Amino acid sequence: MSEARGRLLASASRLFYTEGLHSVGIDRVIADAGVTRATLYRHFPSKDDLLVAYLTEADALIRTQVESARNAAGGSPREAVLAVAATIADGIRSPGFRGCAFLNAAAEYPDPGHPVHQAVLAHRQWFLDTVTELLAATGETAPGPAAQHFVMLRDGAMAAGCLTDPDPICATFLRGVEGILRYRDAPAAAGVKRRK
Question: Which residues bind DNA (predicted)?
């Protein structure tokens, strides 16, 4: 990555995340990055290209965080699930947290055919697949529905975590993830069907 491209992407990422995708114009990114308009368009032919690059960088960062959490779990599938959840909670508690970059982008670009929305869907599918894989490794017999539950808890925590004190939100999210894991371990009650 060239220095100019790196500066453009760093400026765009910070501005888009803190102020919104529609509200930040190209001129603002150019001024913040200290480059010329020609330089921006050489690296990003349109604002949509810059927006997708911003989301691609956010996706790469999250993938790295998830991989690090998995590695830190020392091979225990259950601990890997908890480590990924802890990483999410740490992000919600971090200074400047403004919600999920992907949920925010989807709210601004609701058209499913738009490249920004497509980038959001690709990230969310990867995340759901990853959590499904993690939960399957714990012995969960219905990892798909359990992963959907995890993602819903995460989405709620991301939305609520930027509206109020994040500590109780994170505590609730982490209890919910522990509940998903305990549900798998609990013997099925008589007459109560398990997730399908």
Answer: 25-44
